[in-house]
Target: Large ribosomal subunit protein uL10
Amino acid sequence: MARPDKAAAVAELAEQFRGSSAVLLTEYRGLSVAQLKQLRRSLAGTADYAVVKNTLTAIAAKEAGLDNLEDELTGPTAIAFVTGEPVDAAKSLRDFAKANPQLVIKGGVLEGNKLSGEDVTKLAELESRDVLLGKAAGAFKAALFQAAYLFTAPATQAARTIEALREKQAAEA
Model:
């Protein structure tokens, strides 16, 4: 029979899995408490970073419907439960890992799809959602201006031709 404190921890972890837009797994072996605190600050607003027990996390992940995390839950594991923008959280982890090579990004889950450590690094290289939406809006706006120009071009050309004919008739008369 499970102890009540472990059952509560599993329930809390399962709720965090369900409430997260992404989950990023790291190995923190060799990091000091001060470095972990610095990492938590860099993730503030986008993710909650927690050191977890692998067995309890595996149970909670199964309860939350994430069966593909078990093989990543080896060694000292910490999880970033992303509540904000996944790209921003991945960038924070990547930047911290560059400055502190002891942090190893193991992988994660984004929208139900398993990510490897390389996938998380590729995710970090993407521009933020707002920038991508801005670029898409700019492309749509350019396409609309081009379409408006194409629709008005024949009428403008006809008006110029008529005006040229009037000027020619006036010059001949």
Notes: The longest helix spans residues 129-172. The mean pLDDT is 83.
